[in-house]
Amino acid sequence: MEPTIISGKEVSNSVKDEIALEVEKIKSSGGKTPHLAAILVGEDGASRTYVNAKVKACERVGFGSTLVKLDADTSEEELLNTINQLNNDNDIDGFIVQLPLPSHIDEQKVTEAIAPGKDVDGFHPVSLGKMLLDLPSFLPATPAGIVEMLRHYNIPTEGKHCVVIGRSHIVGSPMSVLMARNANPGNCTVTLTHSRTQNLNEICASADILIVAIGKPEFVTADMVKEGATVIDVGIHRIEDSSKKSGFRLLGDVKFDEVAAKCEFISPVPGGVGPMTIASLLKNTLLAVQLKS
User: Fold this and answer.
1) Fold annotation for 30-115
2) Cβ atoms 6, 150 nearer than 8 A
3) Could you give the 3-state DSSP secondary structure of residue 71?
4) Is-contact 48 270, C-beta < 8 A?
5) What global pTM score does this model have?
6) Number of other residues whose CB lies within 10 A of the CB of residue 111
7) Between β-strands 248-251 and 237-240, what pairing exists: parallel, antiparallel or unpaired?
8) Which residues contact 45 (CB under 8 A, 6 or more apart)?
9) Residues of 41-80 as b/e, b for ≥16 C-beta within 10 angstroms?
């Protein structure tokens, strides 16, 4: 079976085109240009790459963007002050604090300090609570991006068994909620698995849709996947590789080459879920503008 490769690049480009049209409409009717800000603490290579990609995506759709760079030794108090400034800046519609943060800063405290109306990452307890109740809210960017991919490729979800590996608050848990809700895509029977799950291989092998966010390189192998399944790989790992110009190669949580042969649909790493996270951030920023008006 030749699988259909789910191109996050293709889906995110189509989302960005739609957003760019909306921004044109807002501007032509004299409305305010949507503005997304990002706070980057320290010089983590991967984080810097992500933030630069976010700034570029803002330019593409016609958003304003601001990047606030803070040193790695910035205190928690200084970071909370910066968040407070952005909360009170009427020009900024939404902002994110790029994770991971240095170990001396409490990520939960930082997340809760962001004004819910500007929480375009969708991590604030208010955003997650609204998602649970199916109220209009900012959905966590990566799970929302995955839902968008399933929609774009018309992958049937109703009545299907969806297995999610990983229970983080950022991906696994919200993903399980979105796949179970009464919507399209959605209406799945969902099994949320994690490090304490017994018989993980058998559970995964019963999945029509397998969403892998466990954070272990090439964890999912062919024997864990049902023939004709849809597999979404959320993991991204930089593995040192001296044969590459960059000095590293990127791997996902799924052993792509052996798993792909069994799939109807599969998302690659890179070029799968990654671009969708940014597209979702832009969508949330546009929603922030619409919710204010």
Assistant:
1) Rossmann fold (3.40.50)
2) no
3) coil
4) no
5) 0.93
6) 20
7) antiparallel
8) none
9) bbebeebeebbeebbebbeebbbbbbbbebeeebeeeebe
Question: Distance between CA atoms of 263 and 4, rounded to whole angstroms?
Answer: 8
* Residue 278, both tokens: 């940014």
Residue intervals of the chain classified under CATH 3.40.50.720 are: 141-274
CA distances from 5 to 36, 79, 153, 257, 284 (A): 31, 41, 10, 12, 26
The residues assigned a catalytic role are 54, 98, 121
Structure tokens at 21: 């049209």
One digit per residue, pLDDT tens: the chain, 293 residues?
Answer: 799 999 999 999 999 999 999 999 999 999 999 999 999 999 887 788 888 899 999 999 999 999 999 999 999 999 999 999 999 999 999 999 999 999 999 999 999 999 999 999 999 999 999 999 999 899 999 999 999 999 999 999 999 999 999 999 999 999 999 999 999 999 999 999 999 999 999 999 999 999 999 999 999 999 999 999 999 999 999 888 888 888 888 999 999 999 999 999 999 999 999 999 999 999 999 999 988 87
Return residue ranges of the chain for CATH 3.40.50.10860: 30-115
Q: Determine whether domain 141-274 maps to CATH 3.40.50.720.
A: yes
**Tokens 């192998």 sit at which residue?**
221
